[in-house]
Structures are given as structure tokens and as C-alpha cells.
Amino acid sequence: MNRRIGWSLAALALVLLGGLSLFLYLKARPYQETVDHGPSPAAQANPYLAAEMFLRERGLAVSHAETLAVLPHTEPHSHTLLLFGERARMTPREVDQVLNWTRAGGRLVFVAESLWDAQTGQSNDLLLDKVQLHQSLSKDLKDPPEDGEKDRFPKLTKLYLEDEDAPAYAGFDTDFHLDDPNNVAQAWANSAKATHMMQRVYGLGTITVVTDAELWKTGAIGKYDNAWLLWYLSADTDVTLIYNTVHDGLWTLLWRYFPQAIVALLGLIGLWLWQASVRHGPVQMPAPAGRRQLLEHLRASADFLLRHNGQQALLQALQQDILRRARRRHPGFDQLNVAEQWLALSRLTRQPTRAISQALSPRPKQRLSSAEFSRQVAHLQTLRNAL
Asked: How many CA atoms lie within 13 A of 80 on its CB side?
């Protein structure tokens, strides 16, 4: 009966499960969902990744380097070097190396990093000083005279090309201005108030100085004519971009992908430190530095023998010592049987035969209580001392 009920319940469960599966199959509708995970790790590490991809789509060979160590292996002819990275630690030797490469026929594009100091006659940008161009703040310039036609895009930098009716517009930062006190520049691009790009011939090559390179980063290169301007400055050449990409450290990666594990680990470390710092019981006084007494050594030796050899071994040692002394006191002791040996020991020790038999009889192997063991040892020592 019970088996029949069990089979019925199993069949009912299968029917319900099949019905639910059929219902879900008929009602379910497939759909697609796009999950935005943000920029890829490569885009986060290199803000000029979109610029590199744009130039490659235009057929240019683009390479990326983090230092100037690639410069000796880079052919200057038909090659453009984009110095968009931090140059605060650039040495005079590296400056000369870059300028010699440009003089041999290379194209150099770099960002002016420091303002011109009229008092010292220099800026903190060694490369900019060598090119003989100065950078200042646009707010320090005098307002230009107003002409009849109003500029519709005063914040945009305009580049006029030959045989073109309209200029190209670029989104340079208008807070900075480039100045050419020695008239070495052959081309430039201005906003309504300031100059943001200058180009000069340098030997067989050209040098282009810009106030900033933010317009060529991933978030801004698609605006205005920013992408076209980058292509125009490096057209028909191979391109090498010098920029220090950001590499996340080990702890940053661990925190990004395993935050729960790190929090749990820190919690366990905190609990362990708390447990280790809690004192259990009163503070113990330091052990005295004096020498131990002889009784302490004897007690420690006895405890060691009892712990490692057991009670039976100690009792048998005392029994053998009694028999050895009896042999010295009674010649022919070994030829006597056990009963006669006990009688001889009774005469020698003046102890009753019953006490002798209890002391020398084999003991059971079970462990004796502390009181019984002490009593047995004391009895054997009494017999031994009487011989």
C-alpha cells in the first residue's frame, strides 16, 4: 500500500514538472540585452588609443612606446614622432637626441609644458626653449582690435589651408598662448584671442608645437576637426606615439576583481590580532634566576622515568635490586626455590613472609593508583634498606 502511494506521488510530481516546463516553454520569449562594461582595460590605460586606431584606419603604421629608447632605431625620413607624454624629467641629452633626429628629416609634434619666465629668460621646458618658442597665459594678452565681422566660434582654433574656403576647426585649450619672438615659425593656428599651434622647419624636418593634446584623447578626438588635424600633421608617414600608459598594480587589480575576499581576509587578520593580544589569566612573574635545588632535579628525573618507562619498570627495578642484595647476604640464594627465598628474605629483613610475597610477586599490568604505587614503592624500599 505504501509503495503504491509512493509511486502515485512520484507520477504526480512528474506530471506537474512536465506541465510547468511546457508552460515556461510556451510563454518564454528570447531577448537580447546589451550590458555596458565601460572602457576596456587597454582604453583606460592609453587615452590616445582611439587616435592610434583612427590613424591605422587611414593606412598609417602606428606604434606606441613609453620612452625615447626607440628613437635610435626609428628612421627619421617619412616618420612622425608624437611626444604627448610627461617630459618633466627629460634630460638635455635626450633633448639633443630628439632635435638631431628631427634635423635629419623627422616630423616632431610635442606639447609645450611650461610658461616662459621673462626674468630668468627661460622656461622649465628644455625642448621648448631649444625650439625658440614661448608659452604664456591667454589672459595676459591684450584684447585684439574688433573687426567688422564677428567670430562665430571664438573658442575654436582655426587652421587655414591653401585653396580652401573654410578653415579647419580644432578644440585646443584656449587658456594658453604660443609666442614666436624670433619669427622662426612658418605656420600657425589661432583662436579668437591666442595662438595654439605653431610649426617651423628644423633642418630637413619639421617641428610642430601645440598648447595641449587633450583634443586627441579618446573623449575629444571625435569632435570638430580634431581627428583630421592629427592625420594632417602625420600624413604619409609612419607614426610613433610616446606616452607613458598607466599600468594597474597588483593591489589595484586584486581590489578590482576580489574585493569581498580582501575584506574577509582583513577581517580574519583583525580577529587574529585581537585574539593574540588578549591576555588569558594573570600576569606570570618571571622565573627566578637562582640555581635549582637538588630535590627539584630528583623530582624531575623521577617524573621523567615514570612517564617514559611506566610503573612496572620501576617496580621491577626495585625487586631486582632486593634480589641482588639477597644473593650477596645469603650464599646459594639462587639455588633455593621461591618459597625458600621468601623465608630467607624474611629472616634477613625481619619482615613477615606474607609481606615478602606481596612485595616480590608479579604485579598485574594495569596501572596502579598513585596511592597504591607509592605504598608499593615504600614497601620495596623498606626491604631493600633492611638488607
From this structure: 21
Domain ranges within the chain, ordered by starting residue: 41-140+153-242, 249-273, 297-386
CATH for the stretch 41-140+153-242: 3.40.50.880
SS3 17: helix
pLDDT lower than 50: segments of the chain: none
User: For the segment 11-58, what is each residue's pLDDT rounded down to a tens digit?
Assistant: 888 888 888 887 777 777 777 878 777 677 777 778 888 989 999 999
CB 215 within 8 A of CB 170: yes
State the pTM of this model.
0.56
Determine contact, residues 127/210, Cβ cutoff 8 Å: no
Contact 167, 160 (CB under 8 A): yes
Q: How far is CA 82 from CA 24, 44, 107, 230, 232, in A?
A: 59, 19, 9, 10, 13
Burial group, residue 195, by CB count within 10 angstroms (0-12, 13-18, 19+): buried
Q: Which three cell numbers stand for residue 158?
A: 582655426
β strands within the chain, DSSP E: 62-65, 79-83, 107-111, 134-137, 157-159, 168-170, 176-179, 187-190, 195-202, 205-210, 238-242
Do the beta carbons of residue 128 and residue 112 sit within 8 Å?
yes
| In contact, 85 and 65? CB cutoff 8 Å | no
Residue 322 corresponds to which cell in the numbers above? 632486593
Confirm if 213 and 164 have CB atoms less than 8 A apart: no
Can you say how many angstroms the Cα of residue 79 is from the centroid of all Cα atoms in its chain? 39
The grid coordinates listed for 30 are 528570447
Shortest CA distance to 234 belongs to which of 92, 82, 120?
82
Question: Dihedral of the CA atoms 369, 375, 381, 385 (nearest 10)?
Answer: 180
Between CA 134 and CA 117 the distance in angstroms is 9
Angle among Cα 319, 320, 326 to the nearest 5 degrees reads: 95
Q: How far apart are CA 111 and CA 113, in angstroms?
A: 6
Burial zone of 78 (CB within 10 Å; 0-12 exposed, 13-18 middle, 19+ buried)? exposed
